[in-house]
Amino acid sequence: MTDTHQPVRHAVVPSAGRGTRFLPATKAVPKEMLPVVDRPAIEYVVREATDAGIDDMLFVTRTGKEAIEAHFDADPGLEGDLEKAGKDELLSLATEYLGLARTHSVRQGHPLGLGHAVLQAKRHVGDAPFAVMLPDDLMHPDSVLLKQLIAVREAIGGSVVALLRVTPEQATAYASTSVTTIAVPEGVDVPEGNLMRIDKVVEKPPLDEVMSEYAVVGRYVFDPAIFDELEVIEPGAGGEYQLTDAFARLIDRPADQGGGLYGVVVEDRRFDTGDKLGYLEANVALALEHPKLGPALREFLHTELARTETAEA
Ligand code: UTP
């Protein structure tokens, strides 16, 4: 019997992918370590998780991704030097995020797909609900999405995923859903109309099989029953073990065995930092909001746009 009230304390961050969309930058540097403004993308993910009450992070990694773990290590040499030099602001930047959560990692020896990556978390997470956060999906630091997914899980059980409004063409690159709007339970801070029961989900459908404007994006809260499903799925789209194929099976699973699949519509800003343009957009948008960098960047962008417009005329 699944305990709905068990708090969500773990987040699994699949980080073992190859990042081919971002070559050549990602040949020797993990894409999770590419800076967004002044810190690696992975740090935003950890901050988002801890803001939502999660205190245990599990990175699923592979050879070449060691820098992710190193970013969350203390560095007494560096810290001592900064302290001696009185560089308090830099010292704070290098250390303020270290105590946010316990970080762990597990290897995915072969990149057999996102479903296979999440299955590597089974031993660590055990019989507890947990979040999965895809680091390519960078949420604006003010986002409440993960908190909303957790609140829905704690109110009605089952598993809860993020649903992005997309065009039919865009939907072919995601998991497309067929949904029914349901009432938001009392005490859950999700706008009425934004909570769905998912009745069907298909990974990367052809255009004529797209079911709605709602596609699943990289924030999920799963009942541990997902592990049973991940163990029985066969390779799907692209020959990979698809996470979608496993959570699709939760739709028909009885609620008292961890079944049920729900979606919350994403209203917060999200950037696809696994894509070159999305990465640039994230950098510009967040840098413009940065108290020190924003004003000068705004001025630079005005000048630069005027310069390119003159050059084009
Ligand atoms: P993607 O397929 O979007 O990411 O996987 P990728 O493979 O890193 O990037 P591209 O498409 O080649 O540019 C979604 C998420 O699942 C992880 C990735 O790291 C990413 O966070 N993943 C994917 C794994 O951890 N293991 C896998 O076998 C596949």
Describe this structure in a few short sentences.
The chain is of the alpha/beta class.
Largest sheet: 5 strands, mixed, barrel
Instruction: Output mean pLDDT.
Output: 95
Strand segment count: 13
User: Which small compounds were modeled alongside the protein?
Assistant: uridine 5'-triphosphate
In total, the number of domains comes to 2
Q: Roughly how many Å is the radius of gyration?
A: 20 Å
Order of helices and strands: EEEHEHHHEHHEEHEHEEEHHEEHH
Quaternary class: single chain
Instruction: Pick out the low-confidence regions.
Output: none
| Named CATH topology of the largest domain | Spore Coat Polysaccharide Biosynthesis Protein SpsA, Chain A
Helical coverage, percent range: 25-40%
